[in-house]
Specification:
rod-shaped
């Protein structure tokens, strides 16, 4: 018997036990904190990706040698 064999009745039983132990308000606030954490993580990943793209764009702007720029 492993975790893959729990099924719907087992999940419902676990949910009821968690609800009894922690109470509805505590679970609600915990889920709110989890949501905030996920949002912050997504924002951090997005900011990091944007920073890398900006860095690549900066490096790729103009690679023409200075003496070649005057001829154009």
């Amino acid at each position: 018997m492993g975790i893959g064999n729990i099924g719907l009745p087992g999940l419902l039983l676990i949910a009821v036990v968690v609800l009894v132990l922690f109470g509805r308000g505590k679970i609600s606030s915990l889920m709110g904190e989890v949501g905030k954490g996920i949002t912050a993580f997504k924002k951090g990943v997005s900011d990091g990706t944007q920073e890398l793209e900006d860095q690549k764009a900066e490096e790729a702007k103009d690679v023409t040698p200075e003496d070649e720029k005057d001829k154009a």
